[in-house]
UniProtKB/TrEMBL annotation:
The keyword ATP-binding applies. It comes from Gryllus longicercus. This is Pachytene checkpoint protein 2 homolog. The keyword ATP-binding applies. Coiled coil: none annotated. Residues 155-307 form the AAA+ ATPase domain. GO terms for molecular function: ATP binding; ATP hydrolysis activity; identical protein binding. The lineage of its organism: Eukaryota, Metazoa, Ecdysozoa, Arthropoda, Hexapoda. One of its GO terms (biological process) is spermatogenesis. Belongs to the AAA ATPase family. PCH2 subfamily.
Length: 415
């Protein structure tokens, strides 16, 4: 059985080329390449047709694609050709009946969009988390299509990602919604991400909060009624709902607060009955999540700080991006961590710079993903300060930036 390789092609908004024309041109480009690697973007093209009609091509993640004489007979290529929506975030405002004030109840994105382009590929997790999430969605659709009776087998279409701040939970939710809009375009002709602003739901007029919840979810219901639309609902920091309910039970908050939280949970229970919805939630405080909500989640995935291996891959992707933009003018390639392991981490002409980065990665263990993505910028700002730099110089600057960051954190703790 041939292994499926996904080829995602971003077509320019102004392009009028047909899907077949693009497939033929991209397929020829892939055949002409000796050994394309999965998980990498191709943004520069030699072919005039591709330059005119294509913004980027991504070969899906997986093991390296091997070939014989440029012929990929053992692989089945699945093409996803799409345009990126550039409208950005749209806010859903609900008007208070008490004072006419407009509250920002949610944010909406029509997917796929430019805001999240490349986000899925930039996220690095040591486990198979991303593949597991895609498989989860595929199974929910399969069970719905086959009419599996939920009285016998239960699934709620609810994902809970929990762990410390800055580990990529919210980004992963948004990236998953984007990836689904691309991979499932043949099934859904419209995809929307709705991020609920839980903090705005608790109106200063507590008696009105329940009405605001109903108004917000009624708009989600309208989208779901169209079976050709896929809706991903994101509830960030879901523990805020649980906290409000616990405080209300203890008498610390007005009784209306518990009615609001119950209304949200009831609405989640209602919309999960639609086959075209996925509910994505995150939490920074695992102990603060209401057990009633935890029980609703099909996947409860802890996301901690990156391991040394993940740190190395994150830094390596940052270096590659700076090489692409010629800020690092050296085109020396950093080897994979697997190759370093095979070489027993012994220094050589081909591994010296990679070993240097690996040492920096060990120094950076325990940093959040958010911090790791900032460090290359801080390295340049503090210790490079020129338009172009060699890879060796940049790695030296990165090492200094890691040391400075640690020192700054220690000083912050002492104040």
């Amino acid at each position: 059985m041939a292994r499926v390789i996904h080829v995602e092609v971003v077509q320019r908004l102004e392009s009028r080329a047909s899907v077949d024309q693009i497939k033929i041109a991209v397929n020829k480009m892939i055949d002409d390449k000796l050994k394309p690697s999965a998980g990498t973007f191709i943004k520069r093209f030699d072919d005039a047709f591709l330059v005119e009609h294509i913004e980027a091509v991504l070969i899906s993640e997986g093991n390296e694609i091997s070939c014989k004489n440029g012929i990929f007979s053992e692989f089945q290529f699945v093409y996803h050709i799409y345009r990126l929506n550039d409208e950005g975030r749209q806010r859903e405002l609900l008007e208070s009946e008490e004072d006419g004030e407009e509250l920002s109840a949610s944010s909406h994105w029509t997917l796929p969009c430019t805001d999240f382009h490349g986000l899925w590929e930039s996220l690095v997790f040591e486990s198979s988390l991303k593949d597991d999430l895609l498989s989860f969605v595929e199974t929910t659709l399969l069970f719905s299509d086959k009419g599996v009776d939920s009285n016998f087998i239960s699934w709620n279409r609810v994902v809970l990602l929990h762990g410390p701040p800055g580990t990529g939970k919210t980004s992963l939710c948004k990236a998953l919604a984007q990836k689904l809009s691309i991979r499932m375009a043949d099934r859904y002709n419209h995809c929307e991400l709705v991020e609920i602003n839980t903090h705005s739901l608790f109106s200063k007029w507590f008696s009105e909060s329940g009405k605001l919840v109903m108004k917000m979810f009624s708009k989600i219901h309208e989208i779901l009624e169209t079976e050709s639309s896929l809706v991903c609902v994101l509830i960030d920091e879901v523990e805020s709902l649980a906290h409000a309910r616990q405080s209300a039970v203890k008498g610390l908050e007005p009784s209306d607060a518990i009615r609001v939280v119950n209304a949200v949970l009831t609405q989640i229970d209602h919309i999960k009955s639609y086959p075209n919805v996925l509910i994505l939630t995150t939490s920074n405080i695992t102990a603060g999540i209401d057990l009633a909500f935890v029980d609703r989640a099909d996947i409860k995935q802890y996301i901690g700080y990156p391991s040394v291996a993940a740190v190395y891959e994150i830094f390596k992707s940052c270096v590659k991006e700076l090489q692409r933009t010629n800020i690092i003018h050296s085109k020396d390639n950093l080897v994979t961590l697997k190759l370093l392991e095979l070489s027993s981490f012994q220094p050589s002409e081909s591994t010296n710079t990679s070993l240097k980065l690996y040492d920096i990665s060990k120094l950076s263990e325990g940093f959040s993903g958010r911090t790791l993505r900032k460090l290359p910028f801080l390295a340049h700002a503090y210790f490079v300060q020129k338009p172009s730099v060699s890879l060796t110089e940049f790695l030296n600057a990165l090492e200094k930036a890691v040391g400075k960051f640690k020192q700054d954190c220690e000083e912050l703790k002492r104040t």
